Amino acid sequence: MKEKKRDIKIKKITVNPNDPTSFPKWNVNQKLLDATNEKEIEKQKAEDDLEAKMDAARYAKSIREKLGFTQKQLSERILVPLDTIRNWEQGKRYPTGPARLLLKILDKSPKLVLRVI
Prior knowledge:
mainly alpha, 434 Repressor (Amino-terminal Domain), 0% strand, elongated
């Protein structure tokens, strides 16, 4: 059985976070929702997970490049193994916990962090 390809329509909207009345009123296609099977849900979940890892990879790499460091230099400065930095940037793993927080702080206040560490 061939899988049916679904067209996704993209509509740009503007909302004011302080004004809930500006939020769009969404209509759910109940037939389409009911027709979605577990296999499709798992496939979409895997695609979403991969996209999240790639977003984290781009973020980690952008911070390193913004600092002007090589992967080795960054690993030495923040005391993280070089392989970990590589895995982050390749999307094989993503920073969690303290490492994720450190990257956020490096992104917002690099001079301060680099002076401290």
